[in-house]
Amino acid sequence: MSLNLRGLTPAPVTPFTRDLEVDYDAVASLTRWYASLDGITGLVCLGHAGEGTYLTADEQVRVIETMVENAGDVPIIAGITGEGDKVAGLEASRAVQAGAKAGLLYPSHGWLRFGYQDGAPQERYRIVHEESGLPLILFQYPDVTKASYNLETQLEIGAQPGVFATKNGVRNMRRWDTEIPVLRAELPDLQILSCHDEYLLHTMFDVDGLLVGYGGIAPELLVELIAAGKAQDYPRARALHDTLLPVTKAVYHRGSHMEGTVALKLALVERGKLEHAAVRPPLQPLAEHAQAEIAQALKEAGIL
Fold first, then answer.
1. What is the pTM of this model?
2. Which of 22, 44, 51, 66 has the CA that lies 20 to 30 A from 186?
3. Cβ-based burial of 152 (10 A; exposed 0-12, middle 13-18, buried ≥19)
4. Distance CA 41, CA 35 (A)
């Protein structure tokens, strides 16, 4: 049975201690906070925002277990990032054993540079699902990468057993406007989730929910944004977009999307959810003025 993610599914950060070990107490505390909020339909760990590829396999398992133990009825979804399909299948199997209810399956990262052969993405989803039994979310990468699936590939993956949702971050609104209606028409049971953190407004009226790192710092307002989109209430959605814009700029307009991961931690410090914003290399701390910029943005948005 597939999960119902027709709401907000944040992708939380992974907290570290000051000596860069995983802070499992902070993982537990963050998880309890998210699970206590109305409108949260799932939590995704070990993704980009969660620095998942910077963790050892044992750390990945323990993060999943910690979140499962503290999430109550909120399902935990594991980012599956292994390069080879067999490696990814083993990673998915570990996630199942740790209590994950679904997996967000990343493209093989070699495709980012070299592109993918026709049929290879479909085979990746088949192998990982058959190896693990884990229900899977199709991850559509940005159009500027060579790992962004064409429409035919998306349709074929979405029709495969075990695939129940798509996280679409194509970041090309021409493709969004032409491909999403086809996915909706051809695969009506496929849940469509936007992950366009830095410009959500355009996508809000076509989706079942959001799967975003942004949900980790502004979950209350994003739940309202989803409701406005589903009601086709553009004025309300635009007002929420404008309220969030200072935060969007402070976190996601910094130049590098990975800098946004560091900024998410700084925002959680300002919200009193983390003690500090330690990140593992190759991520680097932001400039000293970033903390003040993010604090001011959160104040302007009424989040603090």
1. 0.97
2. 44
3. exposed
4. 9
Q: Identify the sign of the CA torsion 206, 207, 211, 214.
A: positive
81 with 118: CB under 8 angstroms?
no
Helices (H) and strands (E) in the chain, counts: 11, 8
Inter-axis angle of helices 257-270 and 289-300, nearest 10: 70
pLDDT digits (tens, 9 = 90+) for 184-229: 999 999 999 999 999 899 999 999 999 999 999 999 999 999 999 9
State the DSSP H helix or E strand holding residue 8, giving kind and residue range, or none if neither. Answer: strand 8-10
Q: Could you give the CA distance from residue 191 to residue 25 in angstroms, rounded to a whole number?
A: 32
Q: Distance (Å, rounded) from C-alpha 98 to C-alpha 58?
A: 11
| CATH number of the structural domain 8-233 | 3.20.20.70
All structural domains of the chain with their residue ranges = 8-233
Distance CA 182, CA 150 (A): 12
- Whole-angstrom distance, CA of residue 149 vs CA of residue 111: 10
For 87-235, strand residue ranges (E) read 102-105, 136-140, 163-168, 191-194, 209-212
d(CA 6, CA 75): 13
Contact 48, 259 (CB under 8 A): no
Q: How far is residue 285's CA from residue 263's CA, in Å, rounded to a whole number?
A: 9
